[in-house]
Sequence to fold (348 residues):
Amino acid sequence: MKQLSSTKGEIAGMRAKLPITTFAVGLVLLVQGRAQTTEQIFPKGDLSAAKNHTGKIWLNELSEGDSTFDPSVAMATYDAGAKLDWHIHPGGQVLLITEGTGYYQERGKPVRIVHKGDVIKCAPGVEHWHGAAPNSGFAYIAVTPTQKGKTIWLEPVSEKDYESLKERSVRPNE
Amino acid sequence: MKQLSSTKGEIAGMRAKLPITTFAVGLVLLVQGRAQTTEQIFPKGDLSAAKNHTGKIWLNELSEGDSTFDPSVAMATYDAGAKLDWHIHPGGQVLLITEGTGYYQERGKPVRIVHKGDVIKCAPGVEHWHGAAPNSGFAYIAVTPTQKGKTIWLEPVSEKDYESLKERSVRPNE
Fold:
């Protein structure tokens, strides 16, 4: 009987825990749902093997630019802490931030902390860099005219400069 | 005692239903999460008052095109059944489908049923139309060069032609 009563007790315990477990499972599913990104609309693409960045960046060329239809349209997905080197777009670039938090900085100007939903317009010829915040993934769709020339790559962002931004990046929705 | 035993029975019944209810609530929250669209990344924008479409279409100009940075980048969100008139982009257009199911048709070609995740490249000068399927909302980000001329609007898509497509649109993920 002790065995049975113990079993009964276990069943009662399980019953009591079932709503909590079910709710927890629901919550996990919910969080997964909310975490949906454009990555689930368009594939993340291929891990970049280029030498113009530090950290992992995935690229998906959604539409190549050519002489018939100028702008390239591409998705880029950054691991937290990944960042491009300084560079110039001869035809400029528009970035539609679709996920996370990152940095955008033009030469000689303060860094901008940018978030999902922000749109950045970088004028032709302007030296700049962009990358993920140290504590957040980051993704965008980039629209880049190609017929005025290819991207000109400059030096990497110094680790010292990037480290000095860390303090700011923890502030949400700045 | 009858009252009490009835209450006990009700409580037992409620206990039995609680996991189901909790799961159902979790499922609803999950579906809401999954239903997240780019609309939650970028605002839906303003209801179009233009006369070049039937049905409700919302527009959000994310980045205007000009002589410095050519392509316009805009989000469009369609009610089920909303559709643009036939038209021509002198500089072409790329559509990144971010939500739902719609139609895309170039003059003289069969209609294409397009889905979230599809990328459509419409060459400069091609007569075409696009719109939502009758049973699905539809949204995209459009990249449209502006410096080769404004969109040329033609006649509406005939209701007869649109109605004839209805049968096809119910097939998911065609």
Chain A touches chain B through 39 residues (CB under 8 Å).
